[in-house]
Amino acid sequence: MSYFAIALVVLAIVLLFSVVKIVPQGREFTVERFGRYTRTLKPGITFLAPFVERVGRRMNMMEQVLDVPQQEVITKDNAMVKVDAIVFIQVMDAAAAAYRVENLPYAITQLCSTNLRTVVGSMDLDEVLFQRDNINSRLLTVIDAATEPWGVKVNRIEIKDLTPPVDITNAMARQMKAERERRAVITEAEGEKQAAIARAEGAKQSAILQAEGRKEAASRDAEARERLAQAEAKATEMVSNAIAAGDVNAINYFVAQKYVEAFGELARNPTAKTVIVPAEMGALVGSIAGIGELVGMARSQQAARAEPRREPAPATPRSAPPVQTRAPRRPGGSVPSTE
User: Fold this and answer.
1) Is 112 exposed, middle or buried (CB count within 10 Å of its CB: 0-12, 13-18, 19+)?
2) Among 111, 178, 243, 305, which residue is least crowded by beta carbons within 10 Å?
3) Which residues in the chain land under pLDDT 70?
4) Distance from CA of residue 210 to its chain's centroid?
5) Concatenated DSSP letters for 18-36?
6) Helix (H, G, I), strand (E, B) or coil at 162
7) For residues 172 and 133, is the Cβ–Cβ distance under 8 A?
């Protein structure tokens, strides 16, 4: 009796596990009735008919990553490159993925390998190295269209590695070095050009400023000479008026001034070591005396203008200024004594 009870309990447990199915999240199970697909179980708990239905395939509905193995591909310009990739897939239809293809991951991997050789082989080496996005987009279009009947969606394909031959790698390194050197030379030449332009611009501005300075200095010199000439003209006019009025002292002042200036220029001559006076000193003394008398008369006139006006006094005859006689010149340029 006890054995029969145990057998019933075991049978009940087996029956329970075969009838009650719990599908986890991210998975889907297919149900087969006598070996024929009938429906797909979604995540959750489900009851099957005992001894009639069973779970056929357990499909992963999450996105999966498949590694495409590395392979050697000959490009359009006969260069051998090693290429590998990764592909991201997601099962959209569990029944199609389970019953329309055998070993789904292997089938997608082989499909990617063949299409990768086709796409890379139709391109030059430079295009393969610098147009990975183009390769990815072309592979994605072809493989997604091929896996659609299998109920699989190919989300993206990425080229993981591209390895050209060693000799091509060395050539590319030399090319890169030459390109870098060319850019360095161009940059250096551009810098020298800018420096030369800056120096020329500085020299130009310096020349302009120097020319403006010379122009300003010449203008100031001309203005100074003009004022000096006006002053000399005015002095000459005053002397001429004095001479016209009969003032002999003005003549003596004018002559003495030129006389003294001439001696000053002679004394300032750096090449002259000895000064020879080829003139009579008596005349110079007489001119200086005339200058002193002229200065005294000018002071008396200023004092007379400052005093108030008075009755004019009777005029007295004015004595003539003493006439200085010039002593005869002695041989040798000496001047005889006037004592």
Assistant:
1) buried
2) 305
3) 1, 239, 243, 246-257, 259-260, 263-299, 301-339
4) 31
5) HHEEEEPTTEEEEEEETTE
6) strand
7) no
Stated pTM of the model: 0.51
pLDDT at 112: 92
Distance CA 339, CA 331 (A): 19
| Confidence (pLDDT) at 324 | 42
How many residues are present in the chain?
A: 339
**Alpha-carbon distance values, 248 to 234, 235, 288, 322 (Å):** 19, 16, 13, 12
Contacts 24+ apart (CB under 8 A), 325-330: 326/280, 326/282, 326/283, 326/286, 327/280, 327/282, 329/280
In degrees rounded to 5, what are phi and psi of residue 167? -65, -40
Closest CA to 136 of 74, 97, 83: 83
Which pLDDT score, from 0 to 100, does residue 230 have?
84
Q: Distance between CA 18 and CA 251 in Å, rounded?
A: 153
Residue 166, classed as helix, strand or coil, is helix
E runs forming strands in the chain: 20-23, 27-33, 36-41, 44-47, 53-60, 64-74, 80-91, 152-163
| SS3 labels along 40-108 | EECCEEEECCCCCEEEEEEEECCCEEEEEEEEEEECCCCCEEEEEEEEEEEECCHHHHHHCCCCHHHHH
For residue 152, which of 160, 140, 138 has the smallest C-alpha distance?
A: 140
Contacts of 15 (CB under 8 A, 6+ apart): 50
List 154's β-bridge partners, or say none.
89
Give the C-alpha separation, 236 to 244, whole Å: 12
How large is the greatest C-alpha to C-alpha distance in the chain, in angstroms?
191
